[in-house]
Amino acid sequence: MNRDMAKLPQMLSVEPTAKDRLQGVDAFRLLAALAVVLQHTRPFDGVYSAMIRGKTQHYLAGILEITIKQGARFAVPFFFTISGYFLCNKVMNGQPPIASLLLYSKRIVTVWGAWSILYFFIPHDASVLEQGYFYFISSKVHYYGTHLSDLLKNGAVGHFYFFPNLLVGIYLTTLLYLLRVRYLIIIPALWYCLYLFSLMYPPQSEGIFSNILQSYAFQMFAEGTLFVAIGWWLRSTSIRIQTGPAIAISLAGFLYLLVFEVLEMPALAHIGIVPYTVGLVMLSLSLSSGGTECYLARLGRYSLGIYTSHMLYVFLIANSGYGMRLYYILGYYGYMIAHSTFVFSLSLILSIALSKPKRFRPLVV
């Protein structure tokens, strides 16, 4: 009894202890954070579309653009899936589901809220300051006062859509578990299929597709919940994950995604994200058994901080004029590589620095 009580604080902790961490998962978290940075720094952006229209001869840049853009699409679904995996792990190790849910919710809302407050005061574009900083802030207050749903969906910066999506995913998945739904993954899969079906229709279609299935709320309802449920299923089943099949699944998913994106069939391409992500999650889990913690895994602990902070540097470089200077110094390909590298590296350094004070550590680790 006393031994169980001694373990209670550890059971109720959201952050894994050193011995509980999975080094393969942490290493892939770092890669997923890099993928998010690439999505927002957008190396070679626009070259592929110009290439297929015959407007440029930068063929290498065009191929790199579509490969990077599609390759990075596993990132947010990976974070969803791993969150579902560890939420289920807490429950299977004896923590009450509601307690787990509330702890995760508190952590998500804290990170989401704190970083949103910071971004609220940071201009995304230097041109908005032409009438002064006070005018910029008052305009933002007025905008969010009349568009409160945007603030709730995204926080003060677009990529924070991850947090409300994750909240919806963990709540619905936990609800399905508490209702003892036998095949927990099937219902979210059906929701996701409905969402993909709606993508085949024009955005302004009349009827149910326009009003419900194509709404942001349903996308959040379907996308986050599916991947959280997949993560829960991977932990709750006795499936043995091996490296070879995991690589094959992820590679097949990526090739499917890439082919249908090239064929300009985005709804069908979207399907490929599921095996691509699941294969990479399985690969990360298969590489997590035993051994000394690798350097990538140690850095992977700061993936949350990289995710939340990197847009600070995207805005800084865009507004400072340093981007054009780097372009002239490094040339086209050098700048495209250096831009993403600088943003990623500076975000990692900031995350490591913020992890040192105890009060800031939960915001980045």
How would you characterize the overall build of this protein?
This protein has helices spanning 2-11, 23-41, 47-52, 59-71, 75-92, 97-120, 133-146, 148-154, 162-178, 186-199, 208-213, 216-236, 243-262, 266-271, 273-286, 295-300, 303-320, 322-355. With 365 residues, it is an all-alpha fold. The protein has one domain (2-363). Helix 5 (75-92) crosses helix 15 (273-286).
Main sheet summary: none
So how many helices?
A: 18
| Gyration radius from CA atoms, angstroms | 21 Å
- The computed structural class is mainly alpha
Strand percentage lies at under 5%
Summarize the structure.
By secondary structure, the chain is mostly helical. It is built from 18 helices and no strands.
Please supply descriptive tags for the structure shown above.
globular; 0% strand; disordered N terminus; mainly alpha; 365 residues
Secondary-structure map:
Elements (H helix, E strand, L loop, with lengths): L1 H10 L11 H19 L5 H6 L6 H13 L3 H18 L4 H24 L12 H14 L1 H7 L7 H17 L7 H14 L8 H6 L2 H21 L6 H20 L3 H6 L1 H14 L8 H6 L2 H18 L1 H34 L10
